[in-house]
Amino acid sequence: xxxxxxxxxxxxxxxxxxxxxxxxxxxxxxxxxxxxxxxxxxxxxxxxxxxxxxxxxxxxxxxxxxxxxxxxxxxxxxxxxxxxxxxxxxxxxxxxxxxxxxxxxxxxxxxxxxxxxxxxxxxxxxxxxxxxxxxxxxxxxxxxxxxxxxxxxxxxxxxxxxxxxxxxxxxxxxxxxxxxxxxxxxxxxxxxxxxxxxxxxxxxxxxxxxxxxxxxxxxxxxxxxxxxxxxxxxxxxxxxxxxxxxxxxxxxxxxxxxxxxxxxxxxxxxxxxxxxxxxxxxxxxxxxxxxxxxxxxxxxxxxxxxxxxxxxxxxxxxxxxxxxxxxxxxxxxxxxxxxxxxxxxxxxxxxxxxxxxxxxxxxxxxxxxxxxxxxxxxxxxxxxxxxxxxxxxxxxxxxxxxxxxxxxxxxxxxxxxxxxxxxxxxxxxxxxxxxxxxxxxxxxxxxxxxxxxxxxxxxxxxxxxxxxxxxxxxxxxxxxxxxxxxxxxxxxxxxxxxxxxxxxxxxxxxxxxxxxxxxxxxxxxxxxxxxxxxxxxxxxxxxxxxxxxxxxxxxxxxxxxxxxxxxxxxxxxxx
Amino acid sequence: xxxxxxxxxxxxxxxxxxxxxxxxxxxxxxxxxxxxxxxxxxxxxxxxxxxxxxxxxxxxxxxxxxxxxxxxxxxxxxxx
Lengths: 575, 80
What we know:
Helix content of chain B: 55-70%
Shape of chain B: globular
Number of helices of chain B: 4
Shape of chain A: globular
Oligomer: heterodimer
Number of strands of chain B: 0
Helix content of chain A: 40-55%
Order of helices and strands of chain B: HHHH
Distance between the termini of chain B: 7 Å
Strand order of the largest sheet of chain A: 11-12-13-14-15-17-16
Strand content of chain B: under 5%
């Protein structure tokens, strides 16, 4: 996981992009962006993305954005990246008369809002906006913090207002390059000699970091992100070896190196609270490995923070495969942390898709190193995320009950399942959009919708939506499936989207959903449902989905005559 | 360090940055003689040379050189 330098990224440009997913990007800057363009495309290759970048001529942002007939709109981008630099910002400010200083940030934000509104009105593109790296022009010294009209005050205000704006504007995303400057320092970010000669505001050395930050955001928008962190115990989560040193002697707490492990655990806890699934994979006797979680007063993490706990003497790749099959998520959405280089290499070797950071030798460095990797980029967050660990723990209990029932129907009946069926509404849209981004396996066509896409969709005529929750005696799974139906002809409805969380497989949910779809179709006078399966690398499991449900094949499509459809049996009650 | 030795090291940097094994630099070689040595790549070359010799050029120096020899002389003045 070493960061490539700019010339290595440039070498990527000569590679074969043909099998990669294409995203069309327009890059607009008030500074020279040729190298940034190359760095982003080169970084995209390493994220399995063919980023086709159209770059506006230098300093043409307004010209391109405000002219509906411009090359920008002719290119029809999926994404527009706007890079207005802090250097041009300081020039703009400096040209003002002092009475205008005080409303500088507000005026800039108004201009940015106009960019967003105009681009949204003229295209389907989402926007990535680079926030501003800090420049202290040293006019007031520390006193700048008490002077609202000073440049640094206005710049920081603008960065803050950008966050507030992004928070309420679904198609507008911030690439946080200010945080990159915090990491590398201004001298690493900006080279005056390069700037003077080329109008480039980014140093050659920082280009890979800025490109990485940008592409991580783009990748997350397209469903590539991490869902789970798998952690070793001895010398990773605490100092020492529990089996040898015993409960009293492992290092954790406020003293010495123990502090590093405590802070590391707080970080893991925050990830868990955000909805990242935490799993343990340790070479230990299970009862010994669990002892600190149960008895050590300084442990931050407890057993109820852990979705899957595996401690045994099998090899780690096998155990990770076991975790993967329990959680039903892709290896490429997992991160594995282990202090032992041997274990890391073995896992990398046998499970190449998984991300295995090269943890530093000194545990004191763990956190700072992990911060720089930005492993958990995301473009959405919903309250249900925070409940995820509980869901997986409940799932494990359910698996326990299943083994005690030999008859599957008896088992399903005993679950007392209920489902709330609704069309999309303002309460469920965030979760609907998120599910659309996350679901890879049980997803018939893998069309990704963002929150603003969904909001647009529900206002369209002849489009029907269904969202399903599932609750049983063990707990509430929340919203787990979505359906989007579009009118295709007088008598036929096309199933644009059918996806479901893999957590609720084998519960008869498919039957319940189809029953609901058929009654909706009948209610609106349609006689046929038309389905389609678009294969991806991950959705093989639903290849025969429509066939199994009794649809008739017609070329590339599947047709169901709803007029003589009889409800399929299932043990789920509508709530 | 001798000028000839510096030339060899600069040559290696050009080969790496421009990704072209065929580049052979001489003192009188100028940007016109080397494929891809344009004003933009010039900056990448300059930064790579700076990093290699642990020196910094001023923004005027970067623009002043007419050929490789002048760049080498400039490196020499910085005690490389």
